[in-house]
Amino acid sequence: MKMVIKRQLVCGGVALMLVACATVKTVPGAEDVRLLSAAELVNCQRLGSASAQVMDKITFVERDKEKMAKELLKLAQNEAVKMGGNALQIASDIKNGSRQFDVYRC
C-alpha cells in the first residue's frame, strides 16, 4: 500500500514538472516587441497595459525568478502584438508569478 502511494506521488510530481517546464509559445511578430526604458518611450503612444502570469511554485518549490521574468516577458510580447504594440515597459515587480507591463506603439 505504501509503495502505491509513493508511486502516485512520484508520478504526480513528474507530471507537474513537465507542465511547468513547458515553454511559452510566441505569436508571429512577438519577437519584434522590444522592452524599453522610460527615456526610450518618449515619442511612443501608450496603448494600454498587459498582465502576464506564470506558475511561481512547483509543488512547494519556488521557481527561478529570472526564468519566470523571461516567460512573463514572452507572454507580454504576445499581448502587445494583439494590441497593435511594438514596445513594452515593465510596470510592476513579479508578485505571485504575475507582472504588469505597459504596451506602446513607437
From TrEMBL:
Keywords noted in UniProt: Signal
Top-level taxon of the source organism: Bacteria
Signal peptide interval: 1-22
Pfam families reported in the protein's UniProt record: DUF4156
InterPro entries: DUF4156
Protein name as catalogued: DUF4156 domain-containing protein
Source organism: Lacimicrobium alkaliphilum
